[in-house]
Design a protein that fits this description.
The protein has 359 residues and is α+β, with helices and mostly antiparallel strands. It contains 8 helices and 17 strands. A 9-stranded antiparallel beta sheet has the order 1-16-15-14-11-8-7-3-2, covered by helices on one side. A 3-stranded antiparallel beta sheet has the order 4-6-5, covered by helices on one side. Strands 9-10-17 form a 3-stranded antiparallel beta sheet, with no helix packed on it.
Amino acid sequence: MRALRTIFAFCSRHLVIPVHLLLCFALAGCTGRAPERSASAEAEPPRMITRYAEAMSTTIEVTLPASENARVHADSVFALFRSIETRMSEWRPGSPLTAVNEAAGKGGQTLPPDLLAVIEKGIEIGRMTGGAFDITWAALWGLWDFKAEAPVPPAIAERRARARLVDYRKVNVDRERSFVSLPEAGMKIGLGGIAKGHALDESARYLRKQGVETFLLSAGGQVYAGGRKGDGSRWSIGVRDPRGAADDFFAIIDLEDRSLSTSGDYESYFEYEGVRYHHILDPRSGDPARGLRGATVLAEEATLADALSTALMVMGRDEALDLVERLSGVEALVVDDSARVYSTSGLADVLRIVHKPAP
């Protein structure tokens, strides 16, 4: 078993990866003075361009070498994200997933192959995490209102009643017919914790098929870094100081052909009677997850990284790190509720701490 590393015992709240603020880390030559080159030095690395679009309720960013096809490639990635959203949204009227949820307790729905595959992947990760990740979490949808003018926690009895409808093991999948059904009225599948990662994986496959090996894809708190930059260095992704400014990074992680996903307690939250309540819910209870303030996952597969970063928040430090240690090609960095920071040993060569997060 790989040894865990205690990095610091300082105050940290959540690790986030806002790539639109990272170009000075991720793109060659955007900070400081470029190193001088001799006449025999290699040619300058290719210029990189970044394009932006909205999909899956977040900003999608595509960074790739400038070329006559760069705009077409970026637009194709945006179209891919929107197409996946159309099929895999649990709230969009008329989507195949919405049809499954509306038929809960009454029947099911024939699904497109990619949607069926993502549901099966979600069930697999549910088993892997002991239900800490559960695609049927959407039965909790609307229970907590973090945008209310004066938010308050819902009644415990209501949380538990909703949580009884959450159980990935009850999802019926008929692979031969590509058919999925939910046995109880009120059950709902939500792929918000995994579909974005799937879209990143599909986008990376598309770009490689087009012969693009160097690229950086960003979708909210998750990135996929393809290959190395034109200067031969790995992509450097900043990890935000959870209690600092949006552009204050306390750590940098170097990536190459990997995805990095972060989940934490800072995006949507409120405090009530001295207790902090945040949007990452334990699907087994309906309560906000406790024990960790932030979890960052590196994996070759963006779909897995996306789901695991959420699951680790629910599992807590020891269980989370024990799971990651057993998974090949997966690494993690977590911050517990005592402000201690831990990483798996595989991050040693790619993780740089810039400063201690603000208390």
